[in-house]
Write a structure and sequence with these properties.
Blueprint lengths: L5 E2 L6 E3 L2 E2 L2 H4 L1 E4 L16 E7 L6 H4 L9 H5 L13 H10 L16 E10 L3 E9 L8 E4 L4 E4 L6 H4 L10 E7 L6 H4 L17 H5 L2 H5 L25 H9 L4 E7 L8 E7 L3 E3 L7 E2 L1 E2 L4 E2 L5 H4 L35 E3 L1 E2 L3 H6 L8 H8 L10 E8 L9 E2 L3 E4 L6 E2 L1 E2 L2
Parallel strand pairs: 1-12, 2-7, 6-23, 21-22
Antiparallel strand pairs: 1-2, 3-4, 4-7, 5-6, 6-7, 8-9, 8-17, 10-11, 10-19, 11-12, 12-13, 14-18, 15-16, 19-20, 19-21
The chain binds heme C.
The site of heme C has 20 residues, from helix 3 and helix 4.
């Protein structure tokens, strides 16, 4: 299986990655490569940097500043000390992840016996005049399936879910969720990102952290104004009190912060919902976890009016209209409209038939990801346009890996690192000939 995958495709600037997903067999996942029309890369010649990502559980912005929780470190964290000013042992990430997953740790309420506390990820970076390229490799449980819908004789219900969800914990549903690899990137304009990285975006009120009630969200002026029904990642600068998601600034103030570059890019490779169509999400975090403008890669396959899936597989091409239980995880169960032209609408009565909950609505849009890169235009201006600024500053980056059928807090994360595109850094992008 050799799938091309591009992040941020645009004529001007791309960070690209492709997947040679030896995912299931060798349990080894690589993302990296190049898109059609871009420089061929001999990855064996590109410097590799090994990072350790660890399990952070519920270590939110607020937990880190709570004297009773983050003992002896709350005031230092609040005043802006970097995490690694204290967490600086050679094997600190391994120690921390193991401690949180040992059981009975306040940061992880669910016992996850056998789950490793950390994962090593090898990262390579390269660039040419137009694009930057990243390649990631790691070993893990890299499922690339996504939950399905299943007809139970009466109605279509979700089948499968992320491992930490209650029905999965209770054994009522199988653990099914796509593997994802994400990068958060700051060009130096987000206060404290260099010191405290992704943790700046992780707050009480979000899905795994005392989630806000529907009523509270509906009553919140900012979330109402941006038409959102929950609290997602946000940067401290978007709130008057960073520890209170309800204290949102006005849209005008937020727009000013955005225009001044005070947001982080969030670039996410998804094993199920973007990789099969050669894509990667391009988003950013400021007052919410936003997507950049342009068309999304995926959409729900459930028709909200009829409560039925919109599409099933074209049996002539896929071999069946639905996926049977024994085929989950065994082959490429991607419902891609372009490849399934003539994908049929489901009829009632296909009992036990399942099919993917998500379908790519328009593969043309998927490949083009039109306009989904505004967040990174500064990359080109500053580093990659060949005009060479010798004094270019490196980017501050944080990585997250969701593997093992997991989402939200179940990821592995890195402390902040630097990525140099024409600059010295922890991860140095190699200039391609
Ligand atoms: C002033 C030093 C200091 C700073 C700065 C600091 N920590 Fe800590 N952190 C500690 C200490 C000490 C503990 C152990 C507390 C305990 O034993 O209860 C800890 C505990 C933790 C834990 C729980 C797992 C463990 O190792 O016990 C996490 C997760 C954590 N810190 C993350 C962070 C992050 C993320 C930042 C930056 C935003 C940060 N820390 C900043 C000193 C610090």
């Amino acid at each position: 299986m050799d799938k091309r995958n591009s992040i941020l495709p645009d004529a001007k600037m791309k960070i690209l990655a492709a997947s040679v997903a030896a995912v299931v067999a060798a349990r080894f996942c690589r993302i990296g490569g190049q898109d059609a029309g871009t420089t061929a890369i001999d990855w064996d010649k590109i410097t590799a940097t090994r990072l350790t990502l660890f399990y952070p559980g519920q270590s939110s912005y607020e937990w880190l500043r709570d004297a009773a929780a983050h003992k002896g470190a709350a005031s230092e964290t609040a005043r802006g000390d970097s995490c690694v000013s204290c967490h600086d042992d050679a094997k600190e990430e391994q120690r921390q992840g193991a401690k949180i997953l040992r059981g009975n740790h306040p940061l992880e309420p669910i016992a996850l016996p056998g789950k490793p506390g950390h994962v090593d990820v090898t990262i390579q970076a390269a660039y040419d005049d137009k694009n930057a390229y990243l390649r990631y490799q790691w070993k893990g449980n890299n499922n690339i399936e996504y939950p399905y819908y299943r007809y139970d004789g009466k109605e279509w219900k979700v089948y499968g879910g992320p491992r930490l969800d209650k029905p999965v914990q209770e054994g009522k549903q199988p653990a099914i969720y796509e593997t994802r690899m994400s990068l958060m990137l700051d060009d130096g304009k987000v206060p404290l990102f260099k010191e405290q990285g992704c943790w700046l975006t992780c707050h009480e009120g979000e899905r795994d952290l005392n989630p806000a009630t529907k009523e509270d969200v509906a009553a919140d002026p900012l979330l109402k104004a941006i038409k959102k029904s929950d609290v997602r990642k946000y940067l401290p600068s978007s709130r008057n009190n960073p520890s209170d998601w309800k204290s949102g600034k006005s849209l005008d103030e937020i727009a000013r912060i955005k225009a001044a570059g005070g947001f982080v890019d969030l670039i996410q490779w998804r094993g199920h919902r973007t990789n099969p169509v050669g894509g990667t999400d391009d988003g950013y975090v400021l007052e919410y976890r936003n997507f950049d403008s342009g068309k999304n890669h995926f959409a729900s396959n459930l028709d909200s009016a009829t409560k039925q899936p919109k599409f099933m597989f074209d049996a002539g091409k896929f071999g069946a209209k639905a996926v049977s239980a024994d085929q989950v995880g065994k082959k490429d169960n991607f419902l891609i409209q372009e490849q399934q032209r003539g994908a049929v609408r489901p009829e009632r009565g296909l009992e036990g038939g399942r099919h993917p909950a998500e379908v790519c609505p328009d593969a043309g849009g998927c490949h083009g990801v039109r306009g989904r890169q505004q967040g990174l235009r500064h990359l080109e201006g500053r580093h990659v346009d060949g005009r060479g600024r010798a004094s270019a500053e490196p980017y501050n980056v944080g990585f997250a890996l969701h593997d093992d059928n997991i989402t939200t807090r179940g990821h592995y994360v890195s402390y902040t690192k630097t990525l140099g595109i024409g600059a010295k850094a922890d991860i140095v992008a190699v200039k391609l000939p």
